[in-house]
C-alpha cells in the first residue's frame, strides 16, 4: 500500500466508505423484517422471496451494466446506483403502514427490485474501477474494500436492532438510508474519473461474455461464488426463526448477524494477500469451501450430530462460516480476473466490466437461491435438516476445485510463461528459446517491458 498513488488512495477510500454504507443498508432487514412480515400474515416462503427477489434482479441486470461499462461510464453508473439504493432504503421503512398481507408483500417486492437495480450498478462499476486502478494488486484492493463491506455487515444489524428497539420499524431505514444518501453525494464529488471510457462495441462485448463463460476455470469460479452467496442468503432468511427458542433481545439478535460479517472483514485482507503473493486462488477457494461445510454442520447442528442448539455453538459456527465465506469470495474475484487475462482477453475496462458483471451476477444468483430455498426448506423440513443443503453444495465446490487443479497441473507453468512474456521487450520475446513469442504477441500484443497490466499470479 505504501506504493499506491494519490489517485489510487482516493479511489480506495471513496469506495470503502460507500461499500460500508451500502452494507449497512443491505444487512439492515435481516434481524426484524421476518418478524414484521409474520405480523402481517406472511409465511417464511413469502418473506424469503422478498430477500431473494433483490438478488434475482441483481443477477439479471449486472451483466448488462458490465457489458456497457465503457459506453455509459463507470462513474455515472456508480453514482446513479448508490443514489437509487439510498432512496429505496428510506422508502422500505414505511412498508409497516400497510396492514394487508398481499399489499405489504407486493410493495416489498417493488421497492426491493428497484433497490436491487441500483445496487447492481454500484457494485459492478466499483469492482470494475478497482480492477482497472489496481492491476497488480486486484486481490488486496478488493479485500480492503470488502473489509469495509464486512464492517458494514456488523454495524447494519447492530445499529438497526438498537434503532428498532428505540423507535420501531421505520427509524432504522430512514436513518441509515439517509447516511447512504450522504455517502452517494460524497462519491459523486470525490471519485476520480476513469480514463479510457471509449464507446464499446456491443456485439464484441456479447462475444467476450460468452467466451468467458466457456472457460472451465470461470465456470468453476462461478459455482463457488454462487455457493458462497447461497450460504449467506440462507442465513439471512432462516437464522432469526432458528434463534427464537433462545429468547434473545432485538439487540442481541442483531449482534448474531454480525458474527460472520465481522470475521469476514478481519480475514479478507489476509486472503487477498495470499491470493496475490503466495497461493493459487483455487487453493484458497477449496479451503474456504471445506470451512463452510464445517460451519453448516454445526450451526443447527445437523440432526445426526448429538448436540443441542446452544448460543456458544451457534456463535462458533457463524465465526467459522465468516472465515470460509471470506476465503471463497476474495479468491474467486482475484482468480477470475487472472484467468481471463491468461486466456487472451484484453487488459482494459471492457474486460474488467465483463468479469465484475459475471462475479456480481453469479453472487446475486446465489443470494436469490439461498433465502428463497431456505424459506421453503424451513417450512418443509426445519432448519437443522435444511443446513445439509448448503453443506452439500460446498462439499461439491471443494471436490470440483480440487479436481480442476489436478487436471490443470500445467496452469502454473502457463501463468509463469505469461509472466515472462509480459516482462520482456518485443525483441527479447522473439529471442526466447521456448515458442512463447508468437503466443504472447498474438494474445497480449506488444506489451514492452512494462508490467503495469500484469496481475500477480503466483
Characterization of the model:
The chain is mainly alpha-helical. The protein has one domain: MFS general substrate transporter like domains (Growth Hormone, Chain: A, Up-down Bundle), CATH 1.20.1250.20. It is about 80% helix and about 0% strand. The protein has 19 helices and no strands. The chain has helices at about 5-25, 35-40, 45-65, 70, 75-90, 100-135, 140-165, 170-190, 200-215, 215-245, 250-255, 260-275, 280-300, 310-340, 350-380, 385-405, 410-420, 425-430, 435-445. The radius of gyration is 22 Å and the shape is globular. It starts with 5 loop residues before the first helix and ends in a 14-residue tail after the last helix.
Key terms:
458 residues; mainly alpha; Growth Hormone, Chain: A; 78% helix; globular; disordered C terminus
Mean pLDDT: 78
CATH class: Mainly Alpha
Low-confidence stretches: 195-203, 421-458
Radius of gyration: 22 Å
Total beta-strand segments: 0
Number of helices: 19
Helix and strand succession? HHHHHHHHHHHHHHHHHHH
Helix proportion of residues, in percent?
A: over 70%
CATH arch. level architecture:
Up-down Bundle
CATH fold type: Growth Hormone, Chain: A
Q: What is the name of the CATH superfamily?
A: MFS general substrate transporter like domains
Q: What is the rounded distance between the termini?
A: 19 Å
Category by helix and strand content: mainly alpha
Give the domain tally: 1
State which percent range the strand residues make up: under 5%
Please outline the major beta sheet: none
The backbone outline, from C-alpha atoms, is: globular
